[in-house]
Amino acid sequence: MATSNSSNTLSSTFYLTGIPGYEEFHHWISIPVFLLYLVGIMGNCTILHIVRTDPRLHEPMYYFLAMLSLADMGMSLPTMVSLFRVLWSISREIQFNVCVVQMFFIHTFSFTESSVLLAMALDRYVAICHPLRYATILTPKFIAKIGIVVLLRSSIPVIPLLAHLAFFPFCHSHVLSHSYCLHQDLIHLACADIKFNVVYGLVMLTVLWGMDSLGIFVSYVFILHSVLRIASHEGRLKALNTCASHICAVLILYVPMIGLSIIHRFARHSSPLIHIFMAHIYLLVPPVLNPIIYSVKTRQIREGILHRLLPHKN
């Protein structure tokens, strides 16, 4: 019986949802959404290209920035195909196995982005609190190890959560609340005891996001303590200014992330438009704003972009 249920689940077809009540405007809505995706992809690809090709940017801070751009793209790109298939009225159908793969990438890279932000907080802590040891602590080899650990830490805990979905029968509605698959959305369609997925998912979120946010908070406590010991006002502002982009990146990831989790767990019966709006902010805002923030606030990135656009200008 378990094998039969698993087989039926794996071959199940689910139906994605666009924006309820605005189906006739989907083609128009797709235009600004497409432009946002385009800005995000071009911005992150530009960051990656500049960091790779400019020797002046072969430093820990920019390696972590490249990781952040990869995480941004990994979190948003898996949603593009299904989203525009819905908005362009091509098809609302998505197979269970495709849905699970999409969930894996979305949730894995969401955790990856959070962990990269923790690594960037560590980078700022070492740069401000131990500047003389910066190059010896954050070596390229150590940064590569951090990248591997971050990816494994973000992906492995997600696997048992998604693998357990294969044993759920979906005997009622197969209509999802979004135009892409999220774990917290899919499990509420199961006709089975979902306690394991709810508890495991909550523990995973608490541990991973909790550790990352706590680590970021502790890093900034030490950074602030070190900055306040700088004698000159200009020196304090200069030190804090190096953290401004990172603080913005933390806020634009964590605020929508927490908001979406709260809505799914405590406001499931609220307007579907709220769920859809928060989900799109969660997946679209960080990839779009992060490259813009770092391009505006980081002089080296800004100069690298201008050098590529105006290569003959001195």
From TrEMBL:
This is Olfactory receptor. It is found in: Cell membrane; Membrane. It is a multi-pass membrane protein. PANTHER family: OLFACTORY RECEPTOR, OLFACTORY RECEPTOR 56B1-RELATED. InterPro entries: GPCR_Rhodpsn, GPCR_Rhodpsn_7TM, Olfact_rcpt, OR51/52/56-like. The chain crosses the membrane at residues 28-51, 63-88, 94-122, 142-167, 198-223, 244-267, 273-293. Keywords: Cell membrane, G-protein coupled receptor, Membrane, Olfaction, Receptor, Sensory transduction, Transducer, Transmembrane, Transmembrane helix. One of its GO terms (molecular function) is olfactory receptor activity. GO terms for biological process: cellular response to lipid. Residues 43-294 form the G-protein coupled receptors family 1 profile domain. SUPFAM superfamilies: Family A G protein-coupled receptor-like. GO terms for cellular component: plasma membrane. The keyword Transmembrane applies. It holds the Pfam family 7tm_4. It comes from Prolemur simus (Greater bamboo lemur). The keyword Transmembrane helix applies. Belongs to the G-protein coupled receptor 1 family.
